[in-house]
Amino acid sequence: MILSAAEAVFAEHGFDGTSVDAIATQAGYNKSLLFQYFGDKLGLYTQVLKRADGEMSDLLTRLFASLLAVNDDAVVLQAHQLKSFLTAMVQALFDYLFEHPRLMRILNWEMAEGWQTFAQIASQFPPTDMVQLEPFFRKARQAGLLRSDFVAMIQLTLMVPICQVYLSYLPLYQRLLPDEDLSSASELVRTREYLVDFVVAGMMSGPSGTKTEKDA
To answer: Does the keyword NAD apply (predicted)?
Structure first.
């Protein structure tokens, strides 16, 4: 309950605009209890992000499970395997961010403020998940499946802001296109699949990165 209350206040006001008093009021607890368990406001903020990071790590771990055999040096990576992974990753990230709008707002605050707050706690968030994918992406490069040899971790993490920016802009798009029901379930699925095509076409080389009549 405390972390959910903290997440709501941080999402509304950003880190700098949030006070421990406001979080205590939102949570219905005494401020001294928050200091006892979390130390200070930054400690609370850290735990809010760690909770989200843990959920996303669990999500990605399930996706990585399908790649374990591919990381075997004796196994040749196929284009359909890379495409399936990228598709599943974009879909999962889009759905997670859509279902967690408060986290998305916190990320928007961080971007607006140059990630200054996150920089103070970044060491507590090692990129373990992305490091696990390095052998997979090395094989993808060796097989000629990737358009670029740009840093794999950056290519992968760019999927988050791609989904995040669309969802953050959705209220604006809805105002600009009032006759379109962009927030309907069917339109969100359509958008998600467009972003899948966008990422796959941008990352993969050859026919696998191009939408065919069969995919349409």
So the answer is: no
Please tell me the pTM assigned to this model: 0.89
Encoding tokens for residue 210? 């191009």
Write the burial class of residue 97 (CB in 10 Å: 0-12 exposed, 13-18 middle, 19+ buried). Answer: buried
Tokens 């990230």 found at: 93
Contacts of 71 (CB under 8 A, 6+ apart): 135, 136, 139
Asked if residues 199 and 88 have their Cβ atoms less than 8 Å apart, the reply is: no
Cα 204 from Cα 210, distance rounded (Å): 8
Q: What is the SS3 string spanning the chain?
A: CHHHHHHHHHHHHCCCCCCHHHHHHHHCCCHHHHHHHHCCHHHHHHHHHHHHHHHHHHHHHHHHHCCCCCCCCCCCCCHHHHHHHHHHHHHHHHHHHHHCHHHHHHHHHHHHCCCHHHHHHHHHCCCHHHHHCHHHHHHHHHCCCECCCCCHHHHHHCHHHHHHHHHHHHHHHHHHCCCCCCCCHHHHHHHHHHHHHHHHHHHECCHHHCCCCCCC
Q: Which domains are delineated in the chain?
A: 2-207 (1.10.357.10)
